[in-house]
Amino acid sequence: MVVCVLAVVLAVGGSAGALLYLAKSGKLGGTSATPTTVIVKAEEVATHNVALEPMLVNLADADGHSYLRLGVVLAEETEKDAKAKEEKPAPGADAAVRDAVLGVLGKERAADLLEADGKERLKKELKAALDQQAPQAKVHAVYFTDFLVQR
User: Fold this and answer.
1) How far apart are CA 147 and CA 151, in angstroms?
2) Residue 130 φ/ψ, nearest 5 degrees
3) 139-150 and 67-77: which strand pairing?
4) What does the pLDDT read at residue 114?
5) For residues 75 and 44, is the Cβ–Cβ distance under 8 A?
6) Contact 45, 80 (CB under 8 A)
7) Which of 110, 98, 12 is nearest to 65 (CA)?
C-alpha cells in the first residue's frame, strides 16, 4: 500500500513539475507566466555601397595638432530590383556629400571621438548632415573602413 501511495505522489509531482516548466517556458498552449515578444521583420531596403575617397581632417582641438584619417562607405538606397554592389562615385559627383562629411568632422574633438560611443555618435551626426545637405544621396547607413585619430 505504501508503495502505491508513493508511486501516485511521485507521478502527480512529476506531472505538476512538467506542466509548470512548460507553462513558464511558453511551450504550453494557453497563457504563460512570462510575456512573449513578437518580432516583426522590417521591410528590407535595397542598398548599394559608395566608397568615398579617404579623408584627412584637422580636428577642433585647442592645440591644433590633432587630426582624423577616415575612410567612409555610404549605403545608399536603390531601386528594389537593382543589384547591390560597391562602387566609387564619379569625380566631382560626391562634392556635396564630401562637403557635408567634412563640415561635421571639422567640428569634432579627438577626446570626443575616442569615447566609448564616439564612433556611433559620429555615424548618427554624419547621417543627419547628409540627409539635410545631400538628400539626393538617400543615405541609409554610414560605415567606417578606416578610423585613425592622431593627437
Assistant:
1) 13
2) -70, -40
3) antiparallel
4) 92
5) no
6) no
7) 110
State the pLDDT at residue 6: 75
What gap in Å lies between CA 10 and CA 30, rounded to an integer?
A: 25
Task: Give one DSSP letter per residue of 27-95, joined into a string.
Answer: -SSS--SS---PPPPPPP--EEEEEPPPEEEE---TTS--EEEEEEEEEEE--TTSPP-EEPPPTTTTH
The model's pLDDT over 71-121, given as tens digits with 9 standing for 90+, comes to: 999 998 886 655 545 555 555 557 888 899 999 999 999 999 999 999 999
**Direct distance between the N- and C-terminal alpha carbons of the chain, in angstroms, rounded to an integer:** 85
Cell 540627409 belongs to 131
Q: What is the mean pLDDT of the chain?
A: 80
How confident is the model at residue 63, as a pLDDT? Answer: 86
Sorted by where each starts, the structural domains of the chain and their CATH numbers stand as: 1-40 (no CATH), 47-150 (3.30.479.30)
pTM of the model: 0.63
